[in-house]
Amino acid sequence: MKFYSVNLLQFLCIILFSIFSSFESSNYHDYADALSKSILFFEGQRSGYLPWDQKITWRGNSGVGDGWTSANTDLTGGYYDAGDNIKFNFPMAFTTTMLAWSVIEFGEYMPPSELRNALVAIKWGTDYLLKTVSQPNRIFVQVGDPIIDHNCWERPEDMDTARTVYTVEAPNPASDVAGETAAALAASSIAFRSSDPGYADTLLRTSIRVFDFADGYRGAYSDNSNIREGACPFYCDFDGYQASILLKYLYMFAWLRRASQGDSYLNYIQNNGKTLGADDNINEFGWDNKHAGLNVLVSKEVLEGSAYTLESYKVSADSFMCTLIPDSSSYHIKFSPGGLIYRPGGSNLQHATSISFLLLVYANYLEKSSKILNCGSISVGPKMLRQIAKRQVDYILGDNPKGMSYMVGYSNYYPQRIHHRGSSLPSIKDHPQPIRCKEGSVYFNSSAPNPNVLVGAVVGGPEEDDVYEDDRADFRKSEPTTYINAPFVGVLAYFVANPNLA
C-alpha cells in the first residue's frame, strides 16, 4: 500500500509540474489566427451602412440617420465603443490612434491580407472622425444619449432611442477630444502614407486644423454643461484639467511632429518636457491618460540621436519600463497570482494590452539603437521587455488559471455570455421583427450563451484574483471595448513574426 501511495504522489507531482510548466511558458498559440480575429472584431462594432464584404454577417445597417435630425449633418459611420450603441469620440479617437500606431510599428509583421484589413479598420474610424470635424470651429463629440441607451437592451439595428448629437462650438473648449482626434488623424496619415498618399494628405491637413481648435479653446470637453450630462460618468475627463490639457496636448504635438516633421511641434515638446514628472501617473496609458504612451512615442527621436533635448521623456519612459521589472528597485505595477497586469477600475485587460504594446514598441526602439535599459543595478534588454509582453498575450489567449481564452472565438474555451447587445440578441437576419428597448431584457437575463459570436472581442477580463465568471451582467469583466482590442492588434502582429523569443 505504501509503495503505491508513493508512486501515486510522484505521478501527481509530475502531472502538476507539467501543467505548471506549460502554464508558465507556452509556444503553441496561433498568433496569426488571433491577429486575424482581433481585427475582425471591429466589423462587429461598425455603425452605419455595412459594406458588401462584411464578414460578421449577423450584423446589419444601423445608425443610418445619425446627425441628420438634430444637427442637419451626416454623422453616419464610426464605431460603437463597447457593448452599447453609443458613439463616443474620445475612446473612438484613441482606438483609431492605436490601430494606426499598430500598423506604423508592426505592420511589417502582418500578413499582407491582415495589413489590408487593419487599414480598412483604421479608415472606418478616420472617415467618421473627418465628418465630426468637417465644420469650422465646431466638433461633434458624441452621438446617442447614454442614459437612455443604457436603460435599453436592444440591437443597434433596432435603435429607437434618442440619437442625440453632442456638439462643442467655439469658444467653448474641447481640447481633450479635439487633441485625441488630431492625434488619430496624424497617426493615421503615417499609416496610409505609402498605400494612399492622397488620403494621408487629407488626414494630416485636417489634423493640423483640428489642432488649431484644440489650442485656441483650451479646456476639457466635459466642462461644457451641455456635454457633461452625456459624457459623464462614461468618458468625461477623469484626470482633471491640468493633466488633460498638458498630456493630451503633448501627445497631439508628438504625433503631429512625427507625421509632419515640423520643427514648431518639436519646439513645443522640448519646452514643456520639464513639466512631466517621472512619478506622476507614470504607469498609465489609455483613452484618458497619455503619460506612458507619450514618453515612449517621443523617446524614439532620443534613441535615434536626433533630439537629445527630449531626454526627459526618455528618462520617464525608462522609469515606466522599470516599474514592470520584478528585480528592479522601482518595481511596483501589480500582477495577479496568474501573472496578469492589474490596475483598479474594471475592464482590466485594457491595461494589459496597452502596456504590452508599449513594451514591444520600446523594445524595438532600444534594439534598433543598440541600447539597453538601466533599472538601478539591473540592465534590461529588449528581450526581457518582450518576455513580459508575451506573458500578457499568452495569459489573454488561455495561459491562465482558468485555462480560458479571453478573446471570443479563439480556442475552444472562451466567454459565451459577453456584455454586448448585438451579440446577445437574436440576429436581425434570424429575427427580422424589431426587439424594442425593454423587450431585450429577457435575453439579457438569460443564462444561455450569446447566439452571435463576436469573433475577436477581448473582454474586460479578470481582476487581481484571476477569477472570471461568465456573467453577462458583470460588465466590468464581460464587456469588450474597441480600446482593449486596438493595441492588441499591434502586439499580436509582432508575435506572428516572432512566436518564440530566443
Automatic annotation (TrEMBL):
Signal peptide start and end residues: 1-25
So which domain of life are we looking at? Eukaryota
Report the catalytic activity: Endohydrolysis of (1->4)-beta-D-glucosidic linkages in cellulose, lichenin and cereal beta-D-glucans
Q: Where is the Glycoside hydrolase family domain?
A: 31-492
Query: Hydrolase as a keyword?
Result: yes
Q: Where is the active site?
A: 419, 470, 479
State the Gene Ontology BP annotations: cellulose catabolic process
Q: Which UniProt keywords apply?
A: Carbohydrate metabolism, Cellulose degradation, Glycosidase, Hydrolase, Polysaccharide degradation, Signal
Its Enzyme Commission number(s) read 3.2.1.4
Note the InterPro entries from the entry.
6-hairpin_glycosidase_sf, 6hp_glycosidase-like_sf, Glyco_hydro_9, Glyco_hydro_9_Asp/Glu_AS, Glyco_hydro_9_His_AS
Gene Ontology molecular functions: cellulase activity
Q: Does the keyword Signal apply?
A: yes
Q: Which family does it belong to?
A: Belongs to the glycosyl hydrolase 9 (cellulase E) family.
The record's listing under PANTHER family reads: ENDO-1,4-BETA-GLUCANASE
What is the designated name of this protein?
Endoglucanase
Q: What is the originating organism of this protein?
A: Fraxinus pennsylvanica
